[in-house]
Amino acid sequence: SSAEYDTDVIVVGTGPMGATATLALATYGVRVQAVTRWNWLAPTPRSHTTNQRAVEVLRDLGVEEEAVRYATPWDLMGDMTIATSFAGPEIARLRLWGTGDDRHGDYVQGSPCPMLDLIQPLLEQLLVTNAARRGAQISLNTEYLRHEQDDDAVTVTLKDLTTGRVYTRRAQFLVGADGARSQIADEIGLEIVGHHARAGHVYAAFTADLSQYVAHRPSTLNYIMNPATGYGEIGMALLRATRPWDRWIAGWGIDLNGGEPDLDHGRALERIRTLVGDPELQAEIEWVAPWYVNQAFALCYSNGRVFCGGDAVHRHPPSSGLGSNTSIQDAFNLAWKLAFVARGFAGRGLLDSYSKERVPVGKQVVARSNQSRFDYSALREAVAVPDCDDPTAARLEKIRARTPEGAKTRAALYEALKLKRYEFNAHGVELNQRYESSAVLPDRLTGEEVWARDPQLYLQATTRPGAKIPHAWLVDERGRRVSTLDAVGKGMFTVLTGLSGEAWVNAAQKLDLPYVRTVVVGDAQHQDLYGYWAEIREIEEAGVLLVRPDGYIAWRISGAVHETDKATRLLRNALGMVL
Ligand code: FDA
């Protein structure tokens, strides 16, 4: 019983992975203690692009509205300029993250949630304070030292850094959300393949009112192609708003073979003035720090009672904006499984599905975000100029030349920009995860999934087991729009059928399980007035979907079933296999 343990789950780390796991576990009614060695949460902005799937997780956990309040809104996120300086001529523009007219419909059709620019300190605050409100213990200034596991428990040794006291806690499970230098991943012997410190950057955070440069082309992310900062595979400097439009981070590549990077504040200010294109710019530098690009992932995420996630198991650059998004989704995949086992609803075998499902995602994310960096070479080459006194003038002349050569340059530039869709409008990369594991029962009758469009760029909504339930707007009894995603999740399995699926309703009633709810699309709370659900559900009205707490489809019966006994047998069997 849970009384034998000091707590059910200990989470090491309060970054996006640890904080999401802690919030979800507390929401599901599991006892959880999260520890971080620091006095507070992430002190610097770090990750910020929060994709729709991550916001869907926040929505399920009941904190989406609060996230929207803290975040820079979607419509200010993505009219990205590539310019010679903020004040100077532009080379190109890109509409990012589904803000462009060509992609916006796909994004809003695919999810009830917006993209958000939510900087990491605010994201962590949101997650951790809500977790604490829901009963999680949050131990700041607490260092994880080591753990031991046996058949029944994991014993974790912690050190209270305010007093120096070392103490142990017995828990059912340990979550290693301890970041890119994960000690826990090491200790449990996770094999990590790839490269570390493949490239390097300097970030300089500063305060300056730059609204005059972005008010007419709002974007929290912008690139500057300028000889002051040409080093590295991106070959451009970054100007990223962390609060529109007066708090910023400037970033530039460093030469890993060139000795220690230059972190001098005075020289950083000079560089920022060049990037902005205002030699008189009044800016206050807050900090200057280097960071390094990794390309590595773990082949397995768990060992016994210990589960790693986030940067502990996948390490990659910020390009494509997948860092904290992937960490949030690792946590959301893991949390309900831990909760189900801790509460006795499922056997320990369910926990093996975490690694099985998330390893392929981590691997893909590491490859994609590194590829996004390599893909800048086409852009650089398209507008490259020979060494000269004024490369910026030469570059503009080349791009604007009224000659056949000029036409070739422009054609190459537009081709290079197209490649960037795979970084900035990769809706499929963000939402098309498919899970294969013991917690998903594949259709016996349907073959391999056929992708109608480019799976990286376009979301393919499907109710195939292993996919996330598609979003469709339904209408509740008060006439308000609710998403199919709102009808499922929140820590429970959902048996989802239609008005003529009475047999499934009866079956769920017969099984009478505390962790299963029934949703009938078409009833007063879930009216399919638009007919959207009927169009995308891929099953007959009296068929059924069994949707997991994380919104993924565990199992479906496409054909109509009208006999309660048969439905009961099938449903009992499916739940038994999954859990
Ligand atoms: P994360 O590293 O956030 O958290 C680790 C946690 O473990 C911390 O709370 C730490 O205190 C704790 N911990 C570790 N060891 C411990 C111990 N022994 N005892 C107690 N606590 C311990 N990503 C992105 O997508 N876009 C971006 O622009 C950037 N930019 C960026 C800049 C900089 C400077 C950094 C360092 C990182 C980024 N990232 C990023 C990466 C992004 O921050 C990263 O993907 C997520 O923070 C990963 O979240 P995790 O929760 O896995 O680890």
Per CATH, the architecture of the domain at 2-69 and 116-191 and 300-371 is: 3-Layer(bba) Sandwich
Strand fraction: 15-25%
Number of helices: 19
Question: In terms of per-residue confidence, which ranges show pLDDT below 50 for 5 or more consecutive residues?
Answer: none
Radius of gyration: 25 Å
**Class of the domain at 2-69 and 116-191 and 300-371 in CATH?**
Alpha Beta
State the end-to-end CA separation. Answer: 19 Å
Helix content: 25-40%
Number of strands: 24
Mean pLDDT: 96
Structural class label:
alpha+beta
Bound molecules: dihydroflavine-adenine dinucleotide
CATH homologous superfamily title of the domain at 2-69 and 116-191 and 300-371: FAD/NAD(P)-binding domain
Most strands sheet: 8 strands, mixed
Any idea of the CATH topology of the domain at 2-69 and 116-191 and 300-371?
FAD/NAD(P)-binding domain
Protein name: FAD-dependent monooxygenase
GO molecular function, one term: monooxygenase activity
Keywords: FAD, Flavoprotein, Monooxygenase, Oxidoreductase
Organism: Streptomyces huasconensis
